[in-house]
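Researcher: I'd like a structural prediction for the single chain below. Treat it as a standalone chain; there are no partners to consider.
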Amino acid sequence: MNFERILNGLKRILPSPFSIALILTLVSYFLAVLLLDGESVMSRVAEVSLYWNKGFWELLAFAMQMMIMLVLGHTLAISPAVSKFIDKLISGINFNSKAVVVTAVFTMIMAYLNWALALIFGAVIARKIAEKSLQNNFKINYPLVAAAAYSGLLVWHGGLSGSAPLKVAEQNHFLYEKIGVIPVEQTIFSTMNIVSAIAIIAFISLGLYFLSLKTKTHIVDNELVIDESDFFKKSNLRKHFSIDNSALFVKIVVFFMFVSIVTVITKSKSLNFININFINFVLFALALLYHKNVKNFLSAVNKAIVGASGILIQFPLYAGIMGIMKYSGLSEVFTNFFIEISNQTTLPVFTFISAGIVNVFVPSGGGQWAVQGPVIVDAALKLHVPVNKVIMALAYGDELTNMIQPFWALPLLGITGLKAKDIFPYTLFMMLIGTVVYISCLLIF
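Model: Treating it as a single chain, here is the predicted structure.
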């Protein structure tokens, strides 16, 4: 098999992430028009246009949560202390296969702690490996290393920042009356999820190692990494005292932030306190602490916001797609099709497949849970399938097709200097491995 020919062919046909968002908008729009009942085509077009407009701004609160998580994760990743840790992590890397495997393993482990942190850490590791390869004059497959840095998005939804399992662990979530509170012990920390996590890390690492041997390596183009050679340097401090330069001031603020964190933990009777807002608060405290003063922190935030700009401008587009799918019933058409052909054994598998399809149009774990959650919960209750299992099936499907959905890859592409078409032939290969692993786990457990 000529991998290089296949890779080059895929690179030629892949459009930009923004164009993909526009294409998906048109596809969902026309599908909804075709499926809606109405007196005329124009009346259906008008109705779908209203759904699109309604959804366009409907995820602003969730978008803000995600943007804060992404920016704070990036801010923490480029702090001096964390940067030194990454330098030590890659100190022994001097050839391509090791670069790929180390990046993948570290990124996937980090993704179970926090998806945003893993995405940025992975991107920073890939970039630093590229800088090191230039300095030490050894060849790597930089797009493959960057693809390995994106592997965390294949596993994140089963981790501590997974939207669906965290949402159902909250009191009074929108499906509370049907399923009550489902603690993370039954989802994130279930035997099935732990086994799938170990299997994914093992098989993805082996698969990427295989690709690293079968694809060509090159000296990295210095234009990709030279412009930000001072990326990790601390800002110069002025000699005179100011609040902005005061490390003591930051320590006092962070102390009270950690008092709040500890209070939340000690007053909780379970792990239900782990939600999006809690994680963002912890990231905020750590980022502020590790940058030591306000001036350095704000400088890092400015860098981080640039990396998140592509996601910011595309979020309304995907929210609009979600509005079309939600209010037209298009998402239910996808989901119901698989549910109708399901039984007690196959429901989790078909939930997984339908979630993968919907994620291409709605690349937001929380948004997808809002759209698909009610349908799959009703099906699980009707077929007597454990609700926690179908929740994780949705989580697995959601994260799987991130490998062909470039939305969340934008910060990584910004940091590494690469394009989506450079990494996506490799992430498609990872998606195929993930499909086998997740379906196997859903059938076994």
